[in-house]
């Protein structure tokens, strides 16, 4: 997915919503066409953006709609659920920098930062950070194939000091040193 296109569609939808408030009766036809175009574009880019009609948007604020704008490293803004913005404020470390991308998936939202750091959020988890090999395995192999769900907490060291473990909605991923001395991912799906 092209994140620039996603952010552009989100910003366009936000601008359209603001502009629709001021539409006069003779501009309704043009606004309706633009509204349809933005809705189609947002659907194509898998972006959760709602376009309000003039009567729906009167007096509505971003907070009332449940979305807020977050700045990204490329200077753009992305409209995200307020819960994701709170999770980003809670878990993202200053050394990670500004978000590189913000993506909505079927199960929730993933914000990517520098160095392979991520902040994830969905309504079930309330948000959690993930990084390193656990994040890499979850994003590329585990989740698409095994339905582990989203992280529910940050990774923690294993008691024996051999690696780390992170809890997900439907199990865990361990990144631990095996008997052969090499690190490997161990996935435990509970559902």
TrEMBL record:
Stretches that traverse the bilayer: none
Organism in which the protein naturally occurs: Corynebacterium qintianiae
Signal sequence range: 1-24
Pfam families per the UniProt record, alphabetical: LGFP
Compositional bias annotation for Low complexity: 33-53
Keyword ATP-binding: no
Top-level taxon: Bacteria
Name used for this protein in its record: LGFP repeat-containing protein
Keywords: Signal
KW Signal (keyword) present: yes
Location of region: Disordered: 32-63
InterPro entries: LGFP
